[in-house]
Design goal:
It is globular and about 40 Å long. It has 4 helices and 7 strands. By secondary structure, the chain is α+β, with helices and mostly antiparallel strands. The longest helix has 18 residues, at 58-75. It has a domain at 46-149: Muramoyl-pentapeptide Carboxypeptidase, domain 2 (2-Layer Sandwich), CATH 3.30.1380. Strands 4-5-7-6 form a 4-stranded antiparallel sheet. A 3-stranded antiparallel sheet has the order 1-2-3. The relative contact order is 0.15.
Amino acid sequence: MLMLVGTAAFASPSKAEGPEKKPVKLGVATSGPETVKAAAKDENLPPMLTDKTNGLNPELLKRFDAFRTYMYQKHGVTLEINSGYRSTEKQAYLYRTMPRGMASAPGTSLHEKGEAIDYRPASPTYNQDLAKFGLKIPYPGVENWHVERTN
């Protein structure tokens, strides 16, 4: 379970992990210019997400940002959004131009609702930690870069 407190996220420990909660600082500003300045100066945070975030469900974006911050702190990698919200027109274009099975038909993609993120660089190693943040890869082994909320 993920709890967000201010600008820190805490993964609730399982009984096997014990009672300690380790903070995971988020890489996006949550309010005001002072938060942006503080986040920009913290070397434990990845660069803030600014590109391709428009139209995304705020809860999905918050969970993905907590995940990418964790990956930055754990592996030193900066994850970026390759594709987020898509218009129906954009989805139709991808459906027509991509290899069969690589894009959903227009009107059926969660990208059109702001409920999916394609990220890069994707890795099955990184994806092992998605559930800690309420995220999943619905098509493992096929689209290891496509992330959705678990609920």
